[in-house]
Amino acid sequence: MAIEFKLPDIGEGLTEGEIVKWLVAPGDTVKEDQPMVEVMTDKANVEIPSPAAGIVQKILAKEGQVVKVGTVIIVIGEGAVAASTSPAKSEVKPAPTKTSAVPPPATTPAPSKEKAKSIAPAPGNGGASPMSVPTVPPPVGPVNPVSIEKVLASPATRKLARDRGIDLSAVRGTGPHGRVTREDVMGFSGAPAGTAAAPSFAASAALGTAGSREERVPLKGLRRKISEKMVKSKRTAPHFTYVDEVDMSEVVYLRKSLVEKVGPQGPRISFLAFVVKALIPALQAFPMVNASLDDEKEEILLKRYYNIGIAVATPEGLTVPVIKEADRKDILQLSVDIQRLSEAARARKLTLDEMKDGTFTITSTGNIGGILATPIINHPEVAILGVHKISQRPVVRDGQIVIRDIAHLSISLDHRVVDGAVGAEFMNLLIRNLEHPGLLML
């Protein structure tokens, strides 16, 4: 008996989801509750398990496709997969019997420098521009369709291998149960399975052709959601940004003292924990900054709870986990939450609950630097705070030039809700809190 599995409502009011990645392929034997497909919702990537044990008969939704809740996306049955109904097999085309010579690249590309990582770059403002590199030609030679079908790989991975002229049976799979992943194909050097993969710069040519100087990357998954949210925020809210500097010397001293107190086995004390702690009294004093605007009802919703989002950079793009009830937590608890949520975000293990109900967002470029940024508001919130690197600078105190730990803060606000004077007063209070952090400990 075949089971037609429909995309379920996996979130509050979810109407559709994007198929990010299939973890099974037609012909695979699956167990009940085995991860089956990764779906992107408005909030997070979610792995959906198999509803029953059986054999995958059909996959009815492609990776990158947006499907409505209730749409059948996969069929699981008991018998073997018929050749005429297997999407994976129907996609396999006979390989050419003759090998064609592919000219070598004109130049030998130099390995790219490793890009510095940040805990949380500003939404819509981070990331480096793509850099064109000479295309590495794919290995040539006949592809054996029979051997390919025995390899565990998704339809999209199979297509990528065909486009690059790669025999999947020669690729060592690093996925679950030896599954060949997209990354395995992109890094394949043409050497026998088990040997070293090609240099990482070869991957940039995956979607190009030999000699191509351009590359087309599908806008899908988290990148697509970021695009949609940023455009909606800029189209909906008239942004303005206010910038000031803050003397973080006392925070640096207090953090050092706490690090020594908790020891190497304790939680990692985060500078952002102090920023969150300093934010709470400022948000309480200026409730318009901890609000959202209901456009339909033409009402400003003031929120008397404080759920602070922390923007985190992941390999797929920016995501914003939320520290719930931040006003009820001390520096240690906030540091633990920041570390846990950041690690979960990078491992793609965030739950939907950890991504919703934020009231205010912080985005930090960490030690990457920058004087200031104009971050885009995390809609439907009305404000987002940019925190930049702390550096020692000469400043004047009591008529003397002294060295202090200085940082810049930039806050973007929705001018429909928050006026410039209110934004400036809010920042003044936040800065006072950070410059006298001992008061936050009371």
Radius of gyration: 26 Å
> What series of H and E elements makes up the topology?
EEEEEEEEHHHHHEHHEEEEEEHEEEEH
> Can you count the helices?
9
The average pLDDT value, as a whole number, equals 80
Stretches where pLDDT is under 50 for at least 5 consecutive residues are 83-149, 191-206
**What can be said about the biggest beta sheet?**
7 strands, mixed
For the termini, the CA-CA separation is 65 Å
The rough form would be described as elongated
Strand content: 15-25%
Number of strands: 19
Q: What is the helix fraction of residues, given as a range?
A: 10-25%
Structural class: alpha+beta
Describe it for me?
It is a single chain. The strands form five sheets. Strands 9, 12, 15, 16, 17, 18 and 19 form a seven-stranded mixed sheet that branches. The chain has a four-stranded antiparallel sheet with strand order 1-8-6-3, with no helix packed on it. The chain has a four-stranded antiparallel sheet with strand order 5-4-2-7. A hairpin with a 2-residue loop joins β13 (312-314) and β14 (317-319). It has helices at 87-91, 145-149, 155-164, 182-186, 221-236, 249-262, 271-285, 331-346, 420-435, and strands at residues 3-6, 16-22, 29-30, 35-40, 45-49, 54-59, 66-68, 72-77, 239-247, 291-294, 299-302, 308-310, 312-314, 317-319, 322-323, 360-364, 383-387, 391-397, 400-414. α7 (271-285) crosses α8 (331-346) and α7 (271-285) packs across α9. The chain starts with a strand and ends in a 7-residue tail after the last helix. Mean pLDDT is 80; it is low at 83-149 and 191-206. The protein has nine helices and 19 strands.
